[in-house]
Queue: 2 jobs
Job 1
Amino acid sequence: MENKKKILIVEDEKNIAMVLAYNIKKEGFDCDMAHDGETGLAMALTGSYDLILLDIMLPKMNGFEVCEKIRYKSQVPIIFVTAKEEEKDKIFGLETGADDYVTKPFSFRELLSRIRANIRRSSGEVIRAQAAAQPSAGIVIGELEIDQEHYSVTKSGEPIELSKKDYDLLVLLAENAGKAFTREELLEKVWGYDDYYGDIRTVDVAVNRLRSKIEKDTAKPEYIMTKRGVGYYLCAR
Ligand code: CA
């Protein structure tokens, strides 16, 4: 029997946490709860979770800090569950290395679709499936080298640290170098959302972050190009 995927809920409002946990378990996941940031961080770092649902306003340590500290050690998917509507907070959430966010109040169905998409993408199933179908594990574009076997990226031999989503995005663009994708296509292929739930700005934020890591000058990108009126593509060399 397949092991159940395990989710950690970090949420100080115990009623919300319990309702979430109840619904998540009903969908066939295991789950644990933490009610403050410090405990959440310590539990997340045990490495026993497949996904973290992270509130932002938390006692002892806020969600942003928890997220940053988790990212030093782990690529586990993190979904921010936020009561803050402001766009900049959402973006900041992504800049700290979170994979996704939902804004309270949210429907459980929406959250579930995000949980499933993030676990599916992070488990490496997609990447392994691609690697198996296509045994040439490396992609070289200009000074950029993607080693799919070891799941690493280097530029001129220097390692580049990427989050799971940014890596997936880069691999997709690199495997299809020269082909432009719309933001909606990228959202669907990399994040696993249909456009009903997706926010295409998520793609722009990820592209900007990726550019800041691989481009010499983000204002004049040489790798990840904007195709006006369409979306993005990786420049074929
Ligand atoms: Ca809270």
Job 2
Amino acid sequence: MEQMDGLDVVACERCEELCASRSRIVNGVGPADADLLFVGEAPGANEDEQGEPFVGRSGDVLDDGLREVGLDRGDVRITNCVRCRPPDNRDPRKGELANCREYLEAEIDRVDPELVITLGKVPAEHLLGRDVAVTGEAGDVVDVTVEGEPRRVMVCVHPAATLYDPGQKETFASTLAKAADFTDGESGQRRLGDY
Ligand code: URA
């Protein structure tokens, strides 16, 4: 795909409004062969400024949560459904999600993670293709097909949800603890049969 260089989108003009509002394209970060691939919604102001996903307050929550389960930010891959900041932090529109989907699918295909973890409602519904009650389904592993390949997706609440609603902290922490089990290739494979 000519817009991508490896896992990075290097040029894209598919969404007129996002092209006008972005400072830059915010690509995923982390190892190209990570066991865990976290997928958020879209870059916010901090991400747009720094060119990296989850570097604002949500990123701090994610980093802290990862540390609590013995992981470092650098151990996992982190990306978004949409790679350009929507104006005024609005949700990405259906057409924008669709325009960017090819890049997300290519990233999932190339990283080939043990587990994809969706952070919040938008990525959960985008990858599962249905309505998702995120708090109720957090920690569940769902089998989906992406680009013809079977993928395991774990639903997780958005890190920012723990800031608005401290009751979500436990849900977030226990979901990350379950996800961490998939960082060991062997236990990840063993679990394949469990779900
Ligand atoms: N929220 C997201 O969904 N993605 C980011 O990159 C930052 C905040």
